[in-house]
């Protein structure tokens, strides 16, 4: 993501406007490029805490499971807070 103009300026440099639609396109493009370079990938892990809003778009574009810190929180929570 370090080469993505909208992501880098808004998230890393904290400058300009956070254009969520533009960043989503960048995230999907980077994930798609990764998939093309490594077609045997079975899942995507979005490590940056700024990326969970784009998980659904990545999942839809790549048709793969997508994990991020939100899915990890839900996973841990479900293991300690079972419903009857």
Describe this structure in words.
It is a single chain. The protein has 84 residues and is mostly helical. The protein has one domain (5-80). 55% of the residues lie in helices and 5% in strands. It is built from four helices and two strands. The chain has helices spanning 5-12, 20-37, 55-62, 69-80, and strands at residues 44-45, 66-67. Strands 1-2 form a two-stranded parallel ribbon. Helix 3 links the parallel strand 1 (44-45) and strand 2. The relative contact order is 0.13. The mean pLDDT is 94.
Keyword list:
84 residues; two-stranded parallel ribbon; 4 helices; 2 strands
Order of helices and strands: HHEHEH
Helix content: 40-55%
**Shape by Cα distribution:** globular
Give the number of domains: 1
Residue windows where pLDDT falls under 50 for at least 5 positions = none
Q: What is the overall number of helices?
A: 4
Average pLDDT taken over every residue: 94
Structural class: mainly alpha
Could you tell me how far the N terminus lies from the C terminus, measured between alpha carbons in angstroms?
42 Å
Strand count, sense and closure of the main sheet?
2 strands, parallel
What is the number of beta strands? 2
Spatially, the strands of the biggest sheet line up as 1-2
Please state the CA-atom Rg, rounded to the nearest Å.
15 Å
What share of residues are in beta strands? Answer: under 5%
């Amino acid at each position: 993501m370090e080469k993505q103009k909208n992501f880098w300026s808004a998230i890393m440099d904290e400058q300009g406007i956070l254009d969520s639609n533009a960043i989503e396109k960048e995230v999907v493009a980077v994930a798609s490029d990764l998939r093309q370079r490594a077609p045997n990938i079975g899942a995507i892990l979005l490590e940056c805490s700024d990326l969970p809003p784009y998980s659904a778009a990545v999942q839809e574009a790549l048709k793969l499971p997508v994990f991020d810190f939100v899915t990890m929180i839900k996973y841990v929570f479900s293991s300690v807070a079972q419903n009857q």
